[in-house]
Design goal:
339 residues; alpha/beta; seven-stranded mixed beta sheet; four-stranded antiparallel beta sheet
Length: 339
């Protein structure tokens, strides 16, 4: 039995349901602990009565430390702050042998058991961004991605998890500052300051818009592969639904095969879930629709299987990349230590 946890609010509801459904197809035995970050999400998920899921209300999960910093942080920053606490809650409350945190915008195509099994005797598993050089933000966003992070319920695993939780309470904001960025850049130091941290490097775990240009993707007899190996999960980072019924792909160049084989089916899935929910819950917005009038400088916009390039954002991305070239070596050797 593989145990996972995730957190999301109504704006990510369709993505969260899609994640659960993908696990049903890809993973023979699993349980997903969902932390519902608003009342609508809790109501919808509990009424759907998922057999392989436990839905946890925010009020049942929050502790004094979280409540103390909640008012100081944005919605996104508070979600990031809560990430290590969701894992810790599951390990302690449900006495799990291990638990893996999943970002709600991930989607599984093959059994993730291979990742967990490869940990061996290690206590923590992390996955790198594997950035393509064009989108490398290791210096500001971190070498590793929180997307799929596994902890065993043992001394080593709990030591890292407790350190992470304390660090996020102390500082967790949506900006780069003194070697920190949200909950994520803390992971850079783990392989150096803790024992038992395993890095899973295979391309199939964490294919994402920032790294798809590194790999060869194929769909062979209905099975998605990356560099001839199985695609385990895709991370649909920064995918946004716009009020003109288009999708913002986050400013990344997405190859045609990925658009056809990965994005189009996923977008259809999200749309179908949203339509279904709207028939039962009046006024619900499970896609977190963004008014197109409030969007400036989108690099890529997905609509009816096409995307368009916005040169304005591309220039800003170029300047950003140029800025980090000179600083990358420094941050590679700079690790955070918290007492």
């Amino acid at each position: 039995m593989l145990n996972f946890c995730t957190l999301f609010n109504t704006a990510y509801l369709a993505k969260g349901i899609a994640l659960y459904n993908s696990l049903l197809k890809a993973c023979p035995k699993f349980h997903l602990y969902v932390f519902a970050f608003d009342d609508v999400t809790y109501k919808v998920l509990t009424e759907r009565n998922y057999s392989n899921a436990t839905i946890i209300a925010l009020n049942d999960f929050e502790n004094d430390d979280l409540l103390r910093v909640k008012k100081e942080r944005s919605v996104a920053e508070y979600c990031w702050t809560c990430t290590p606490f969701t894992i810790k809650y599951c390990l302690e409350k449900f006495d799990l042998d291990r638990c893996t945190y999943l970002d709600a915008d991930t989607f599984f195509y093959d059994d993730p058991a291979v990742l967990i099994n490869e940990m061996g005797e290690n206590s923590v598993l992390i996955t790198p961004h594997n950035y393509h050089e064009r989108y490398d933000q290791s210096a500001s966003a971190g070498i590793y991605c929180v997307q799929f992070t596994c902890f065993k319920n043992n001394a080593e695993g709990l030591k890292v998890l407790t350190w992470w939780a304390k660090a996020c309470i102390k500082w967790c904001y949506a900006r780069y500052e003194d070697g920190k960025m949200g909950d994520q850049k803390y992971l850079d130091s783990w392989p150096y300051i803790f024992e038992g941290v395993y890095i899973y490097r295979d391309a199939g775990a964490g294919l994402a818009p920032w790294n798809v240009l590194n790999y060869t993707f194929e769909n062979i007899v209905g099975r998605n592969t990356v560099n001839n190996g199985p695609l385990i999960f895709y991370h649909f980072h920064d995918l946004k639904y716009l009020s003109d019924n288009s999708w913002y792909l986050g400013g990344y160049e997405i190859p045609a095969k990925i658009l056809e084989g990965i994005y189009k089916p996923y977008l259809r899935t999200l749309t179908a879930i949203d339509v279904e929910l709207k028939t039962r819950y009046q006024g619900i917005d499970s896609l977190g629709v963004i008014d197109i009038k409030n969007i400036n400088g989108l690099s890529f916009k997905f609509k009816v299987g096409t995307y368009i390039l916005d040169l304005k954002k591309s220039f800003r991305q170029f300047i950003s990349d140029l800025f980090f070239i000179g600083r990358r070596k420094y941050y590679k050797d700079n690790y955070i230590h918290i007492d």
